[in-house]
Amino acid sequence: MFVCKSITFYKSSHRKNWSNSWTVLHGGILTFHKDPKTPAGASVRNKTSKFPEFTVELKGATINRATKDKSSKKNVLELKSRSGVEYLIQYDTESIITDWYKIITDTIRQLYKNVLPSSCSLASRHPSSSSTPEADQKKVRTKLKKFLLKRPTLQSVKDKGYIRENVFGCHLHNLCIQEKTRVPSFVEKCIRAVEKRGLEIDGLYRVSGNLAVIQKLRFKADHEDLDLEEGNWDIHVITGALKLFFRELQEPLFPYSLFNDFINGIKIPDYYSKIAHMRNLVRSLPPPNRNTMEALFSHLRKVIQHGDENRMSVQNVAIVFGPTLLKPEVETANIAAYMVFQNQIVEFLLNEFESIFHM
Question: 72 is in which domain, residue-wise?
Fold first, then answer.
């Protein structure tokens, strides 16, 4: 498929004006769609893929560089369909219009090679048959409509693995299904890298890494295999990227539906009842959330155990991760009070990790 945006287009007809079009070449069909950036195209922005303004069947067509008597514009191609309709195609950049000229020429030549035998045979069997331009256009539109309706949905393409969902900004459940893992690979890689060479670094998870480098790491995680253990990445960049991963999840690690339950649980006055309540809530989490939470909190406990070196107490870790892992779906005026509870919940789960996750 060869696609170009906003080609200037002119059809030889009663209308004597140029118009900007989105132009698509697929197979032997060239389609012109109204440019959605123009007022005329804005009303059909969501329909251009189904209702082209014009279609040109390249079988039997000819294309040449337009002469000056055809147009005074630069970089103009003259396309004449088999039915005799003329089209002028223009683009300001010469290299782009040259590419169009080559690809259309090659397509016409290939179509000629492919259909010549069948065309001759058809003509010999039906010497008197002929088709009108209107009939040809109707056939093209029908074929194009059938093709568009057969196109798979984006979700079906993702389900088949042809399109990989980004690591950042996705849903935790979808990511684990895509990777066939219990815990996202990116989370496990970050944890391994930090535990291998960063547990004693001062301000771990509290000190911000270079934002530009964090974005670079994010891009690599989304588009290619990532090795964090080779030592090329600063520890604060890795911890910053891990926090960003959890912050940008479509739904937080603590699901929206259980936010109020966790808030109410941390308010329970009896300590052992509070543990039982939190244990039941954690067990009710979707498996990807529960498994990821267990892996993360187990790692954060190791960070806390090195608190003498990295100066990250359980309170400091809770302050860093509370608002990142646990937040309401709709923010209200109680955000300050919520923040206190968010930190307390993370701190409680860290302190009672064994009782909540392993009993």
Answer: 2-151
